[in-house]
Write a structure and sequence with these properties.
By secondary structure, the protein is mainly alpha-helical. It has three domains: 78 residues, Fumarase/aspartase (N-terminal domain) (Fumarase C, Chain B, domain 1, Orthogonal Bundle), CATH 1.10.275; 225 residues, Fumarase/aspartase (Central domain) (Fumarase C, Chain A, domain 2); 84 residues, Ribonucleotide Reductase Protein R1, domain 1 (Orthogonal Bundle), CATH 1.10.40. The chain has 19 helices and six strands. The strands form three sheets. Strands 1-2 form a two-stranded antiparallel sheet. Strands 3-4 form a two-stranded parallel ribbon. A hairpin with a 2-residue loop joins strand 1 and strand 2. Helix 2 packs antiparallel against helix 3. The longest helix is centred in the first third of the chain and has 37 residues.
Length: 445
């Protein structure tokens, strides 16, 4: 009976397939095959034997059920793998796993899985960035009120908001790519990293194995690949999850009934928002993503703890990594797919953005008036205090900001009504927003 939600609710088939038991077994076999071929390359094993091991190192011949059967008896999965593979290789089976330790196989196979998973995430991020860039392009000039501390601030455009999201995803792509060279490494150096079991050609064997598998080499091995690499990987994944949750949280906030500036796609013909409140259109995808992002970040702690091992290694990292590595990748892929679909179909209510901008009132243009006064020769601090008092009075008395400005001689002695109107025009106070969006689109498109 399935218990983990990944088995029945979350995750997509392609990413799950990378980490399923059958594929993991194949990756372990790939490493054993590469090791046999490396031994042949340096002259330790006849090529005929290595060829048989390579051909046989496939789940077509080495069955998961057989490996599990042996493991159940001896309680050691890599020895079970070795015996199951050797059974199928006949006389050549005696050349399986020569000189290696379990983690030579385990860590190198894990790197192959992580490599495939990173490749898939890179595609996910590229597609998400593309959708965000398109939304930014479509809304380059869609004016709305910006908010800081949850309060009305100054006018911005929705294109700037989403363009910044696209740029952030672009940086996440760079981070993932940059760290990959440090993360995607394997080892073939024996029980404590000395390579003694491989003989005088140990260095050549390790290089040959990793070249065959398309991985980098762990330059300073112990019994394992150094776990600071896993910490870096998880740090990047958690960083991406922060970006995703930030974007999803903004959708949730802007979909609030009192704001109503954007909303998730909603299938009005079929989708149910509530079991009792028939009118509801809830931001369920954004909420779902926020929850999953927190699960991913929750794996950061065990990844740190798993880097702190006794001497040349102990086994405390193994059980934790079986959870946090596959779960993090599967959830990241799931979240990115959902966010791409969400933003692709995001409903942008431009009219409501305009209404909210009007509702904020002309008082949000206080900075513009301050700078207009500064332009007429008033000191910046004097202008700030003057306009601060006017804005406080207008909000306290629930009156138009302009009327308080017009009634203030300190303002009208320097600014005409036309100049005040110009300073209160939100569209005239977008600065370089359009240029910024254009520059972002050049980077991310």
């Amino acid at each position: 009976m399935p218990v983990c939600p990944l088995d029945f609710r979350y995750g997509r088939p392609e990413m799950k397939a990378i980490f399923d038991e059958e594929n993991r077994l194949q990756r372990l076999l790939d490493v054993e095959a590469a090791l046999a071929m490396a031994h042949a390359k340096v002259g330790n094993v006849k090529q005929d034997h290595a060829d048989i091991v390579k051909k046989t190192a496939s789940t077509r011949y080495v069955k998961l059920a057989r490996v599990q059967e042996i493991d159940a008896k001896i309680n050691h999965e890599i020895t079970a793998l070795i015996r199951a593979l050797s059974e199928q290789c006949g006389e050549s089976g005696k050349y399986v796993h020569v000189g290696a330790t379990s983690n030579d196989i385990l860590d190198t196979a894990a790197a192959l899985q992580i490599k495939d998973a990173i490749d898939l995430l890179e595609k996910d991020l590229a597609e998400f960035r593309k959708v965000l860039a398109q939304k930014a392009r479509e809304n380059r000039d869609t004016i709305m009120v910006g908010r800081t501390h949850g309060q009305y601030a100054l006018p911005i455009t929705f294109g700037l908001k989403v363009g910044n999201y696209a740029l952030e995803i672009h940086r996440q792509q760079q981070r993932l790519k940059e760290c990959s060279t440090r993360i995607l490494v394997g080892k073939m150096s024996g029980a404590v990293g000395t390579g003694a079991g491989f003989g005088p050609k140990a260095v050549d064997i390790q290089k040959a194995v990793m070249a065959e598998l398309g991985l980098g080499v762990e330059d300073g091995p112990t019994q394992i690949v150094a776990r600071d690499r896993y910490v870096e990987l998880m740090s990047v994944l958690c960083n991406i999850s922060c970006s995703i949750e930030k974007f999803a949280t903004e959708v949730r906030n802007l979909q609030r009934g009192e704001i109503a500036e954007v909303s998730e796609p909603f299938d009005e013909n079929n989708q149910v928002g509530s079991s009792t409140m028939a009118h509801k259109k809830n931001p369920v995808t954004a909420e779902n993503v926020c929850g999953l992002a927190r699960i991913v970040r929750g794996f950061m702690s065990p990844s740190f703890e798993s880097a702190i091992l006794w001497h040349e290694r102990d086994l405390t990292n193994s059980s934790a990594e079986r959870f946090f590595v596959p779960h993090s990748f599967i959830l990241m892929d799931d979240m990115l797919a959902k966010m791409t679909k969400l933003f692709s179909g995001l409903v942008v209510n431009k009219e409501q953005m305009g209404r909210n901008l009007s509702r904020a009132g002309s008082v949000i243009m206080a900075e513009s008036v301050i700078l207009a006064l500064v332009g007429k020769g008033m000191g910046r601090q004097d202008a700030h205090e003057l306009i601060r008092k006017c804005s406080m009075e207008s909000q306290r008395e629930c009156e138009e900001f302009k009327s308080h400005l017009m009634a203030n001689k300190g303002v009208t002695s320097l600014l005409s009504e036309a100049e005040i109107d110009a300073a209160l025009d939100p569209r005239a106070y977008l600065g370089t927003t359009g240029q910024t969006v254009d520059n972002i689109l050049k980077i991310v498109s």
